[in-house]
């Protein structure tokens, strides 16, 4: 039985500002969850953003529902494992990142108790995972060229560029001139509208691996219309928050590729169901990222070992995100452009508790004395 749950509100500064169609992110503020049983700690992360732009969740909303609803529920129902948690937590609406943080912490603990790496619990088959990098919008194209060159030299297998109206076709044209053969994709984070369809069709000439989430999350029909008119596969991110969403988007041909993030879909159990559907329907998956700390990234790495994850992932070295991370050993890219999946128990990386404490803005353990 779970003895203790601790929440940490953590703030970490990015090595370089990350600009998307939503705006500029300079730091990550997120909630880290630690569950303890028999002296063993399991760790999970709610990869929330500073403002409700990517989704409605923020560090504040995640902390609040964890504190007020999910953690009391876990103790009240005497939940034993992540599978049971997944089934029971469904009765609460929404808040997938908050649910995922607790579920993933339970998965880490469950794997540690079974003395297995998480990859084995999930049935993942890969020992290493293809690393890609997601690059933000820059002040000018020369800086972007430098960034791209830097990550290509480090052997990253795919470069993803953020786009928005005013930073799209011309930029991609210049990038393609300079780097004619690299694996390249773009991500608009919902920045376009119906009357941009003709403009977006111009991206079809650049041999892109995919165009990620050009339209708002609830505009499946616009994605279907664009997909019908272009060869480049459309990949969904924000639009798909469950297996049900995935089935709908696939059946109506609104996507050909899916970016999977455990936080967005409420945890690893949902990812496992989506993996099964992807195998049946031959849908290429890859694991996205939310600029996670080492905890969240380790979880992503284990999930990306599933056989339906066939494309390079948004999983990069710790150093691409943070000068100093909260876990060790660090993930380092191999000469093959991969990250090795830790073989130790659970997530397979240790949390640097003393550094974590230093960057923790707020910490609370449950049950508290006044806990009901
Ligand atoms: O849309 O994939 C996205 C980061 C924050 C929020 C949304 C997205 C991203 C990224 C970064 O693209 C991926 C990473 O963590 O490397
Ligand atoms: Mg995306």
Q: What would you note in describing this structure?
A:
This protein is of the alpha/beta class and 372 residues long. The chain has 2 domains: 4-115 and 352-371, Enolase-like, domain 1 (2-Layer Sandwich), CATH 3.30.390; 120-340, TIM Barrel (Alpha-Beta Barrel). It has helices spanning 59-76, 82-89, 96-113, 118-122, 141-153, 169-178, 197-201, 220-229, 243-251, 262-265, 268-281, 294-303, 318-321, 353-358, and strands at 4-20, 23-37, 40-46, 128-130, 132-135, 158-162, 184-187, 211-212, 234-236, 257-260, 285-287, 327-328, 338-340, 350-351, 360-366. The model has no long low-confidence stretch (mean pLDDT 97). It binds 2-succinylbenzoate and magnesium ion. Residues 54, 134, 187, 189, 237, 288-291, 314, 316 line the site of 2-succinylbenzoate.
What name does CATH use for the topology of the largest domain? TIM Barrel
Order of helices and strands: EEEHHHHEEHEHEHEHEHEHHEHHEEEHE
Assembly classification: single chain
| Biggest sheet descriptor | 7 strands, parallel
- Order the strands across the largest sheet as they lie in space: 5-6-7-8-9-10-11
Total domains, how many? 2
CATH class of the largest domain: Alpha Beta
| Overall mean confidence score, pLDDT | 97
Basic shape = globular
- Helix percentage: 25-40%
Tell me the number of strands: 15
CATH architectural category of the largest domain: Alpha-Beta Barrel
What amount of the residues lies in strands? 15-25%
> Radius of gyration over alpha carbons?
20 Å
Instruction: Enumerate the spans where pLDDT stays under 50 for 5 or more consecutive residues.
Output: none
Q: Looking at this structure, what is the CATH superfamily of the largest domain?
A: Enolase-like C-terminal domain
Task: Give the termini separation.
Answer: 17 Å
Q: What's the helix count?
A: 14
Structural class: alpha/beta
Ligand set: 2-succinylbenzoate, magnesium ion
